[in-house]
Please model this.
Amino acid sequence: MKKTDLILIFVVLVIFVSLAILFNHKKGGDVATVTHNGTIVDTIDLSKDGNYRYEFEEGYNIVLVDDGKVRVIESNCTNQNCVNQGFVENTNDAIICLPHKFCVTVKSNDVTYDAVTN
Ligand SMILES: [Zn+2]
Model:
């Protein structure tokens, strides 16, 4: 086998692995809907890392998006359940902060996938 063949095989392998990772990400959520008191206040794109701060009369929640996952990193709520819950990434996973009536739910843009899993 020639050296160039090996390089080609390696390159193809890398592309396949990258595609597999991308595809896996698709199986997780695409967006996270943020609701307060049952009303959608924001929709977060999970493909973009970032911090999001939400303030309500009950208090505040800071949401972190990292590598397609989402979590509440800070809140001034009484029980801190939302912070302790950590990262969620799968479709229909939700972080709920009862004291603030605050909820972050992972959603998929892929309707077919939702139909299969539900
Ligand atoms: Zn909370």
User: Anything to note?
Assistant: The chain has a mean pLDDT of 89.
